[in-house]
């Protein structure tokens, strides 16, 4: 048995999936607390003080999005959705409710484990973050509002800085279109998706080696964007 890697609350009504995921997580050293309903999930999340929560959306007593919203009202614990719902609208609604990532069924256990590790790394890094981030040869100092690429300064407009700051502070997490629009332009512009597409393309042109094949600023089609391969600087 590996050393204790953390506590995970798993809210899922399918016994077969619970058994599969629990076995995989325990092999990785996690302690898993299972819940079959939204009510049980809220009790477990409130009493176990987990390092991460996995939630199915199709629970028998309540929609999983409400569980996410309830947990977010008192905790910033990473939340990963594991659901058979594949519609973009469902993904967006769950992420807007406060989830950090979304994996659809059927799923591969190695991918689920990778997503969990990424969220736990993100939380660990964020807790010690100084506001300085490195992505390959890119360096960002958010408090100083500076960016450089290969040692050369990169000029970012005020809105570009807001967008990349939002992505970097939650590196690895999917940030929805509405969340990015609110960060960049304010809550009255959360439906102006064309603004966002234009500015994200500009950011990629300034920051990526090849804006057509980005390595750092990735698109989650129909949902939003995420930044990957981030290290504290």
UniProtKB/TrEMBL annotation:
Domain OmpR/PhoB-type, chain residue ranges per copy: 130-229
SMART domains given in the database record: REC (SM00448), Trans_reg_C (SM00862)
Keyword terms: DNA-binding, Phosphoprotein
Membrane-crossing residue ranges in chain numbering: none
InterPro entries according to UniProt: CheY-like_superfamily (IPR011006), OmpR/PhoB-type_DNA-bd (IPR001867), Sig_transdc_resp-reg_C-effctor (IPR016032), Sig_transdc_resp-reg_receiver (IPR001789), WalR-like (IPR039420), WH-like_DNA-bd_sf (IPR036388)
UniProt keyword annotation of DNA-binding present: yes
The organism's place on the tree of life at top rank: Bacteria
PROSITE patterns (UniProt xref): OMPR_PHOB, RESPONSE_REGULATORY
Modification 4-aspartylphosphate occurs at: 56
A Pfam family the protein falls into: Trans_reg_C
Entry protein name: Response regulator
Source organism (scientific name): Herbaspirillum rhizosphaerae
């Amino acid at each position: 048995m590996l050393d204790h890697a953390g506590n995970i609350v798993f809210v899922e009504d399918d016994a077969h999936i619970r058994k599969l995921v629990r076995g995989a997580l325990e092999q990785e050293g996690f302690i898993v607390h299972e819940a079959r309903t939204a009510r049980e999930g809220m009790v477990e999340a409130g009493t176990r003080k987990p390092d991460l929560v996995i939630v199915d959306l199709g629970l028998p007593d309540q929609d999983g999005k409400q569980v996410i919203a309830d947990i977010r009202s008192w905790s910033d614990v990473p939340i990963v959705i594991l659901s058979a719902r594949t519609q973009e609208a469902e993904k967006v609604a769950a992420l807007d409710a406060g989830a950090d990532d979304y994996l659809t069924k059927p799923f591969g256990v190695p991918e689920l484990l990778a997503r969990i590790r990424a969220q736990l790394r993100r939380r660990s890094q964020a807790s010690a973050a100084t506001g300085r981030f490195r992505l390959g040869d890119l360096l960002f100092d958010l408090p100083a509002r500076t960016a450089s690429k290969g040692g050369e300064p990169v000029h970012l407009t005020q809105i570009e800085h807001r967008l990349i700051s939002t992505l970097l502070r939650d590196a690895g997490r999917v940030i929805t279109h509405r969340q990015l629009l609110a960060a960049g332009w304010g809550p009255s512009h959360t439906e102006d998706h064309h603004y966002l597409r234009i500015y994200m393309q500009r950011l990629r042109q300034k920051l990526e080696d090849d804006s057509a094949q980005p390595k750092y600023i990735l698109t989650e089609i129909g949902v939003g964007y995420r930044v990957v391969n981030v290290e504290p600087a």
